[in-house]
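ping. complex inputs:
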Amino acid sequence: MENHHQILSSVADGDAKAFRSLYDLYNGKVFNTAISYLQSEQDAEEVTQDVFTSIYRNAGKFKGQASVSTWIYRITVNASLNAIKKKKRNTFLSLSSFEYDAPDFDHPGIVLENKENARALFKAINALPGNQKTAFILSFIEDLQRQQVADIMETSLKAVESLLQRGKKNLRNILEKTYDDRRI
Amino acid sequence: MKSEKEKWVNSVMGSLAGLQRAKPGPDLFAKIEREIVGQEGKIISMSQLRVAAAAAILLLAINVFLLNRYAKSETTSTSEWVSEVDSDEQLISNYNLYE
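pong. complex structure:
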């Protein structure tokens, strides 16, 4: 991880090779997190682009209080939430019939036999409240340790565990309702 | 015994098993580089900023100087006008028959 600090400090000095190395190390993490929020490959690429330009511009402001990974995840979560807000606002302004619901999203990394079930799960994740969604995505899709999730969300470990517990309960409720609706 | 609904919910909840991380398209890095280069082009350098500031200060100084000069000339013409008025009053008073 010390190495990542060095890379970031070289990025702050305008080193293009270091920026490429940082991109190679983190593009998957950033894109995978963004796609879990936005449930669209195109939108996730836009967020990934925003995140890396922001990293390039602000590399010099990194104080080293958190790990580079935590810092980048935090930027990604904020950029994804902002992109969702912007999308909802644009939808409201355009008064179109389109709702930001992202139905039938297929995550590109899902095992083929789980595709249909995962589609239902992503739809349910989309309906979770913001903090529960973030805790769930970082813990179960990005597979991060709970302490890192707490660091990214700038909250306590206990709060993350509580968010995950409530998030799972909410997901089950949403899925049960989906099951009932499908049978009508 | 688990109901069909519970089984389905459990299988959906477990559908992230074996999930692979999604990756962006291969040309995304080139796009990011282009955006950064484009943004740097829009950034004003310190030397440009200094020249712009100096030009603004010079313009302001010229304006202050000209305003000052205009105000001075106004004062002079006003005092001339006042003395003219005085002499007119004297002239009028000279025609006052009932004095």
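Chain A has a mean pLDDT of 91.
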